[in-house]
Amino acid sequence: MIKDPEKVYIVRCGETALKGQNKPYFERMLLQRIRRVLKDFGGCQAERLDGLIFVRAPETVSREDLLRRVGHVFGVDSVSPAWELNIQDLTDQEALDQVGLAAVAWMKAVAESGSAKTFKVEAKRADKRFSIQSPQIASIIGGKILRGCKVLTVDVHHPDCALHTDFRRGFAYIYDEVISGYGGLPLGTNGKGLVLLSGGIDSPVAAFLMAHRGMLIEAVHFHSFPYTSQRAWEKVKDLGGILTVYCERIRIHSINLLPVQEQIAEKCPPEQMTLLVRRYMMKIARIIAEQTECNMLITGENLGQVASQTAEAIVVTDHAAGMPVMRPLIAMDKVDIMDTARQIGTYETSILPYEDCCTVFLPKHPTTRPRLQDILASEALLDETELIRLALASEEIVTLQPRDEL
Ligand code: ATP
Ligand code: MG
Question: Is residue 274 in contact with ligand 1, taking CB distance under 6 Å?
Fold first, then answer.
């Protein structure tokens, strides 16, 4: 008689497993994140054992829903839906019989679904109290499957189905899928960053990459209403909404930059327009970052992409920030940035053709080799205190709650 196996999801903690003395901390954080994304399903349980996380869910939670949620948690290397058999009170021989019966039942279902004609068994024995060695386990279970499912044959090199049997701390696990997650580090293990979120392709990818390293994300968006439209703002909120799938709750601070742009247009050389505006973005973002306890700014800047992203322009922009600015895309090729945008689901929204505040006062011939002293001289003509006051007075904040799907 086969004992009823329990359904579990085995979650492997990617890089978090390599963190030496910090390992328990990262695992705890990952466990917390997993519990949080599963909370509203009701009745799910997650526990940490032997460097793995085991998730149990009631029948009402579909496999797809659970895998999607857990698969979006940074720090998850992979997930395997599995059967768990309690073999604590069994002799080795009895345990092997039980696992054999379960393996045959599993492979019968696989054969009936038509998804495999060939298989192999991979055995792992973390529990050395179990005296039978892995190669022997694999061959015994493999033999039972061959006898129990006559339509299947063994192919050790390119099997349609690799059935894993893991023996650990009094339990045996059976699974045939190892579904990749995003890896990275659990959210909240590496501070909080304020992303300058435009409606473009780059900045959402930049936010994603920093969150992937464990950074919580807050966002600031600059608009030039009424030159920029409500639809452009909706688009930015949509992008933020997609990011919440990975980054959980995101607050977007919306700031009207028009008074800044108008005064720069009135008082400064037109070729410096973009750079001066970008410096103001940095100055304002820094204040918001300090108010919201962000350790650093994040932008989607990419070396050489446009006039304001030459090496010289970035130096001049950076000078205005007064706090560390992360530019995770700095050395990436645009095609790779676009690929990432497609993978994370922001691309289609990013390419919607709504105006950005930077395009409103776009100079014909922007300077590509600015000198800091020239820019500072122009900036001295502006009423910085008043412009920043006006910008901050226009601030509106929206909070985007975590969304489930893209
Ligand atoms: P993106 O695709 O992110 O819009 P881009 O190639 O259009 O980037 P720029 O417009 O020069 O480049 O902007 C560079 C970076 O400055 C953006 O990635 C973003 O971080 C920030 N930025 C630009 N415009 C805005 C805006 N309206 N609000 C907030 N941040 C902005
Ligand atoms: Mg842009």
Answer: no
